[in-house]
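To assess whether the prediction recovers the assembly geometry, we first specified each molecular entity separately, as shown.
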Amino acid sequence: MSDDNVLYDSPTEFLHEVAEKSGHCVAQSVIPLEDGSYVCACSCERWEVVAPSRQEGLRLARAHTGSAP
Ligand SMILES: [Zn+2]
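The predicted structure of the complete assembly is given in tokenized form:
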């Protein structure tokens, strides 16, 4: 067991993780608009749609990430 290894590995792992998540579908947002519709966006920044309801927005988000039940 070596503390040096832990200190040495952590920053590398952290940077790797951030770089890996950038441009990936790790988080989706469904934001209400003033006209009653909802704009849905993803952390990958390559997906943005307007949905008629919050539920539909969440469904589209799940479909986008491929995690539909
Ligand atoms: Zn995405």
